[in-house]
Amino acid sequence: MSAFQNIKLVVEAGVARLTLARPDALNALSRPLLREMITALDALRQNREARVLLITGEGRGFSSGADLSAGNSPVGSPDFDGGEVLEQYYNPLIERMFALPLPIVSAIHGPVVGAGCSIALSADIVIAAESAYFLQAFINVGLVPDAGSMWLLPRLIGRSRALSMMMLGERIPAKTALDWGLVHDVVADADLATRVAAITEKLARGPTLAYALIRQGVRKASEQTLSETLVYEREAQRLAGASADFAEGVAAFREKRPAKFTGR
Question: Which of 35, 42, 174, 178 is deepest in the core (most CB within 10 A)?
Answer without folding.
Answer: 174
